């Protein structure tokens, strides 16, 4: 190329072995995270809709759809933690849409033709999505407080609950990335978007499994989202005392850790492998 | 000095389909190499393999001295890629895109910014650098894409159908940019469906079809392959076209080399001697009572080389059988 006057001589830093390669991995991941943050800055409406959607669901279920039959005490106390868990599960959909959009545009090809760290695209995605969901959780807690929900446990319990919710979101993140890469096309994303609803609703977010037929109640109790829901109700001390006596219900705290860890253990390697297989 | 692009016996299959079937390609440093072929010939697959986006099933790929299978990262540091679809982030501004790519090339934050400004300036995007790319015109988007491919001044630049879908003005802009790049040592590999583009820009051309090279050389070499001059006859009555076509070949010319275009009522054949052919054909047409609208002797076009080597349209095939 004929060098125009004023062109900067290109001295591309050569990441050597070991430490600096990890350094570049961190730098690249941060660059990719910044990309997502820049998207937010350019699409404030979309960010607002993303935050408002679970709030709308919460208000609908609290005021319009009079669930809560069989729940003793204030329904908000029961519903709000369940909605936290549901918000985390619905994050799967957001992740999947974002990854599919990227893959269907040429920009991922450019990333892959550059000497950057391979996984940085995925790390950037996950950091950004976790930040978004954390923000969403804070907003939801704020709205929850205004409609009468309170935590009664210790502050450590609150932190623990937030931790479990983010862990659930982390599992959903990798399922979302994997599914996006398997499905690939926006039309198939729609199918998953629809299927997220029954999975999210087949849980104890809105009501207790005891109100359901036995077979359905059992499915609900073993839903990973129910485990998180029950565990965080426990940590917030919102337990209305009707959360069931099955093994799954009694060990919700354990399951709320084991389920997401198993899901991440399964889908993270699958997603990473799938990303590598883009060159097949 | 070694060649900038060396591709040897590369094969790539997708299930039953052979996308590349033993592709060979060599380009010297500082040249523009055109890869010409119809849709589905394997052009894009070839570029994706050379740019390490795809792995070859078999064969050797060496770009700027780096082996694609063993040194993908070193290879990526030395190439730029302009794919068929704009490989930029549509939501971000031009400036944000170039800065991001600069950081990912590890220029460092400050350097990446300086470089982004330089490139925006150079590609006439300085005024629109802060607008989101989705508001750009097709030509502007392509220029930004090209700028992104040039952040590190690559040794080898791949351009995969860089002007497909652009209007004539956008096309001229891209050609202009490509011309300004060559000469300074950058090797450009350009795929295209447009013969004119290859003719205009490429030093050498590889014609590919069904995943392999079927002809290679300069535009003149390829034209010469058709055997020099041709005679064209346009008949008044399309029904007489086949009969006219049969009259065209002179001594030593194979009937297989006659082409007919039913829509234009045109028959064309290679000729050994221009004047001999002209008088012979005029006379033969008169004897047969075939009225000609136009008769001309001319040099072959690259289109004919292309058609001849990649196969003709169905219509032409059918007409040829009749001949």
TrEMBL record, chain B:
Keywords, ordered alphabetically: Antibiotic resistance, ATP-binding, Cell membrane, Membrane, Nucleotide-binding, Translocase, Transport
Report the Pfam families cross-referenced here.
ABC_tran (PF00005), DrrA1-3_C (PF13732)
**Localization, UniProt:** Cell membrane
Q: Which SMART domains match?
A: AAA (SM00382)
| UniProt-recorded Gene Ontology molecular function terms | ATP binding
Question: Domain ABC transporter, which positions?
Answer: 5-235
Note the InterPro entries from the entry. Answer: AAA+_ATPase, ABC_transporter-like_ATP-bd, ABC_transporter-like_CS, ABC_transporter_ATP-binding, DrrA, DrrA1/2-like_C, P-loop_NTPase
Q: How does the UniProt record describe the way this protein sits in the membrane?
A: Peripheral membrane protein
Q: Which residues form the signal peptide?
A: none
Q: Which PROSITE patterns match?
A: ABC_TRANSPORTER_1 (PS00211), ABC_TRANSPORTER_2 (PS50893)
Q: Which family does it belong to?
A: Belongs to the ABC transporter superfamily. Drug exporter-1 (DrugE1) (TC 3.A.1.105) family.
Name-wise, this protein is: Daunorubicin resistance protein DrrA family ABC transporter ATP-binding protein
Organism field: Streptomyces lasiicapitis
Q: What is the lineage of its organism?
A: Bacteria, Bacillati, Actinomycetota, Actinomycetes, Kitasatosporales
């Amino acid at each position: 190329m004929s060098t125009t006057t004023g062109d900067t001589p290109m001295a591309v830093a050569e990441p050597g072995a070991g430490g600096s390669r990890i350094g570049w991995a961190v730098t690249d991941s941060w660059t990719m995270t910044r990309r997502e943050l820049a998207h937010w800055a350019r699409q404030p409406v979309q960010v607002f809709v993303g935050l408002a959607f679970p709030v709308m669901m919460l208000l609908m279920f609290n005021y319009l759809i009079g669930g809560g039959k069989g729940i003793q005490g204030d329904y908000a106390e029961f519903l709000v933690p369940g909605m936290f868990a549901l918000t985390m599960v619905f994050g799967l959909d957001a992740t999947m849409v974002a990854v599919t959009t990227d893959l269907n545009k040429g920009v991922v090809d450019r990333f892959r033709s550059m000497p950057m760290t391979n996984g940085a695209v995925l790390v950037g995605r996950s950091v950004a999505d976790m930040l978004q969901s954390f923000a969403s959780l804070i907003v939801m807690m704020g709205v929850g407080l205004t409609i009468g929900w309170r935590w009664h446990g210790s502050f450590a319990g609150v932190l623990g609950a937030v931790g479990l919710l983010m862990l659930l979101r982390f599992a959903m993140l990798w399922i979302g990335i994997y599914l996006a890469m398997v499905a690939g096309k926006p039309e198939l994303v729609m199918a998953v978007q629809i299927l997220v609803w029954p999975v999210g609703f087949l849980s104890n977010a809105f009501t207790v499994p005891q109100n359901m037929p036995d077979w359905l109640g059992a499915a609900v109790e073993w839903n990973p989202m129910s485990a998180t829901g029950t565990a965080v109700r426990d940590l917030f001390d919102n337990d209305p005392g009707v959360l069931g006596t099955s093994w799954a219900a009694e060990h919700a705290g354990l399951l709320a850790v084991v389920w997401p860890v198993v899901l991440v253990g399964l889908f993270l390697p699958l997603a990473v492998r799938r990303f590598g297989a883009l060159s097949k | 000095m070694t060649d900038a692009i060396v591709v040897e016996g590369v094969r790539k299959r997708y299930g039953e389909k052979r996308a590349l079937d033993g592709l060979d390609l060599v380009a010297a440093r500082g040249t523009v190499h055109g890869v010409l072929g119809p849709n589905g010939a394997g052009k894009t697959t070839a570029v994706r393999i050379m740019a390490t986006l795809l792995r070859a099933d078999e064969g050797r790929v060496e770009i700027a001295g780096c082996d694609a299978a063993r040194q993908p990262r070193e290879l990526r540091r030395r190439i730029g890629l302009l794919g068929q679809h704009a490989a930029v982030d549509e939501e971000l501004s031009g400036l944000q895109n170039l800065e991001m790519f600069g950081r990912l090339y590890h220029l460092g934050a400050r350097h990446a910014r300086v470089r982004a400004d330089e490139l925006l300036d150079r590609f006439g995007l300085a005024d629109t650098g802060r607008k989101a790319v989705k508001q750009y015109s097709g030509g502007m988007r392509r220029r930004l894409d090209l700028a992104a491919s040039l952040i590190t001044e690559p040794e080898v630049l791949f351009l995969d159908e860089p002007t497909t879908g652009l209007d004539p003005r956008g096309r001229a802009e891209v050609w202009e940019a490509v011309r300004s790049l060559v000469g300074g040592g950058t090797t450009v590999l350009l795929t295209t469906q447009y013969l004119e583009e290859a003719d205009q820009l490429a030093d050498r051309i590889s014609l590919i079809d069904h995943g392999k090279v079927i002809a290679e050389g300069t535009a003149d070499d390829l034209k010469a392959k058709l055997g020099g001059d041709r005679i064209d006859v346009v008949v008044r009555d399309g029904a007489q076209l086949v009969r006219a076509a049969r009259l065209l070949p002179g001594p030593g010319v194979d009937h297989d080399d006659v082409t007919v275009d039913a829509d234009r009522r045109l028959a064309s054949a290679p000729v050994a001697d221009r004047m001999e052919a002209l008088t012979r054909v005029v006379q033969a047409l008169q004897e047969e009572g075939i009225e000609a609208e136009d008769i001309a002797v001319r040099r072959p076009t690259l289109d004919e080389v292309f058609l001849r080597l990649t196969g003709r349209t169905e219509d032409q095939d059918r007409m040829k059988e009749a001949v």
